Amino acid sequence: MLVINGMQLHEALLPARERLRGVFCGHIHQSMQTVRYGILYTAVPSLFSQFSSLPNDTLVREDPDSLPGFNFIHLLPNQTIIHQHTFPRPD
Hints:
The protein has one domain. It is 9% helix and 36% strand. It is built from one helix and seven strands; from the N terminus they run αβββββββ. The strands form three sheets. The protein has a three-stranded mixed β-sheet, with no helix packed on it.
């Protein structure tokens, strides 16, 4: 998912990166984890279906190979661990 002002958001967060554990979001129907300049960005998969698209795509497609799921995030004193749990779709 392309955030229209994503670069401005990232630049606003940079001064606080030593205090941030991460930027967590959902409802984009894709799992994603990335670190940019020391800031963790992560998105949770959908509980129903995943979409496959890139930021500049004009067409969004359902991704039949990606499984529904959820993330469990462990916040430890010096570590952030993301466990992604997926489950098969019912027949």
